[in-house]
From TrEMBL:
One of its GO terms (biological process) is nucleotide-sugar metabolic process. CDD domains: dTDP_GD_SDR_e. InterPro entries: dTDP_Gluc_deHydtase (IPR005888), NAD(P)-bd_dom (IPR016040), NAD(P)-bd_dom_sf (IPR036291). GO terms for molecular function: dTDP-glucose 4,6-dehydratase activity. Keywords: Lyase, Membrane, NAD, Transmembrane, Transmembrane helix. Pfam families: GDP_Man_Dehyd (PF16363). Its EC number is 4.2.1.46. This is dTDP-glucose 4,6-dehydratase. PANTHER family: DTDP-D-GLUCOSE 4,6-DEHYDRATASE-RELATED. The keyword DNA repair does not apply. Belongs to the NAD(P)-dependent epimerase/dehydratase family. dTDP-glucose dehydratase subfamily.
Length: 352
């Protein structure tokens, strides 16, 4: 095995991270991919089942906020590049407990960069890629798009923590010549998505004929992207983006929550052999999320024009694939929704 790069992927056992690790391990047999993950409630080795033992893959259990864990990983695996996805990622949890988001997302990112700077004597041939979100730009009215130059205006503790980490990444680039790249992506969907998030939560509740909790009036708009297309975008930017670059990644695919939930109900009535309209009867309007951003919409023109990336599948295909994956992987769902998830669900939804 000729090893040309040793890439540390933080958060590689999570939703997006596991799709990225799979892509890199399969596409680049000569790279060594080191998944670095603390396995919080959101991390799950089952997400990496098919590739965990691949010859060019290593799993390291470690915490990005620990100096020692990160230092050891750099030394033990001679890390040449970092793709950083580890984070607390759920907006509702950030409203209940912001401090963990500050610790993981801000302190963790700065610690990673400090350890990388200490280990990489010269910055020339290395990349530190920060995977971020469109939520840092705040909330749009019904018109307009976020571009790479839109001002930051985070409005939830989650997005504030991601904005802060983006600012630190940018500061390290300008101050120390640290070799950063960054992208800000819209809402992802696909397999292995934690059922605290809208789409897998609705699929799971439809399957179990439980109420479908729509926040507020269901009129908030999100731009949905197939998670494997996000992974493809990260691959392209990691390899071809210039040092210091930032790109917006999106699906040109905006949906009001309520319309998306109706679409899911229609697909699932069909897949489960229920009569048309049966699942939609489960829709239940509940108390709105505090500070609920009305609309996110990404303009990904720069990524298309400069690096030729565009989404590979339609939302209809992607949503159908996703529904089928959840129906066929009830063992995965059962494991993820047992224990602590039940307490989370009661706490989050019984009070609404
Ligand atoms: P996720 O919650 O599914 O996964 C996060 C992973 O990070 C988990 O495996 C968890 O164990 C790990 N982790 C958490 N704290 C850690 C720590 N202290 N040390 C090491 N590992 C730790 O999240 P996701 O949806 O896959 O998101 C991944 C990244 O992409 C995040 O940075 C998120 O902000 C960003 N992002 C997500 C979306 C989306 O729609 N999900 C969109 C844009 C950007
Ligand atoms: O039960 C629900 N009912 C509901 O109406 C849940 C969980 C959500 N919603 C609404 C809130 C949002 O308008 O659905 C929309 C999507 O909610 P989430 O799945 O929680 O995603 P969002 O808050 O948009 O954030 C996601 O996209 C950007 C990810 O979780 C972030 O990590 C990413 O940065």
């Amino acid at each position: 095995l000729i090893v040309s790069m040793n890439i540390l992927v933080t958060g590689g056992a999570g939703f997006i991270g596991s799709h990225l690790v799979r892509l890199l391990v399969n596409k680049y047999p000569s790279y060594q991919i080191i998944t670095f993950d603390a396995l919080t409630y959101a991390g799950n080795l089952a997400n990496l089942k098919d590739i965990i033992d691949a010859p060019n893959h290593v799993f390291v259990k470690g915490d990005i906020t620990s100096e020692q864990d990160v230092k050891e990983a750099f030394e033990n695996y001679q890390i040449t590049d970092v793709i950083h996805l580890a984070a607390e990622s759920h907006v509702d949890r950030s409203i209940e407990g912001p401090m963990e988001f500050v610790h993981t997302n801000v302190v963790g990112t700065v610690n990673l960069m400090n350890q990388a700077r200490a280990y990489w004597k010269t910055m020339g041939e290395h990349v530190f890629y920060h995977v971020s979100t469109d939520e840092v730009f705040g909330s749009l009215d019904l018109e307009g798009f976020f571009t790479e130059t839109t001002s930051y205006d985070p409005r939830s503790p989650y997005s504030a923590s991601k904005a802060a980490s983006d600012h630190f990444v940018s500061a390290y680039y300008h101050t120390y010549g640290f070799p950063v790249k960054r992208s800000n992506c819209s809402n992802n969907y696909g397999s292995h998505h934690h059922p605290e998030k809208l789409i897998p939560l609705m699929i799971n509740n439809i399957l179990n004929k439980k109420p479908l909790p729509v926040y507020g009036e269901g009129i908030n708009v999100r731009d949905w992207l197939w998670v494997e297309d996000h992974a493809r975008a990260i691959d392209v930017i990691f390899h071809e983006g210039a040092i210091g670059c930032n790109y917006n990644i999106g699906g040109w695919n905006e949906w009001r929550n309520i319309d998306l939930i109706h679409e899911l109900c229609t697909i699932m009535d069909f897949e489960l052999g229920r009569k048309e309209g049966e699942s939609a009867e489960l829709i239940s309007y509940v108390k709105d999320r505090a500070g609920h951003d009305l609309r996110y919409a990404i303009d990904a023109t720069k990524l298309f024009d400069e690096l030729g990336w565009k989404p590979s599948i339609t939302f209809e295909e992607g949503l159908r694939n996703t529904v089928k994956w959840y129906i066929e992987h009830q063992d995965w769902v059962k494991e993820v929704t047992s224990g602590a998830y039940q307490d989370y669900y009661k706490n989050m939804y019984n009070q609404r």
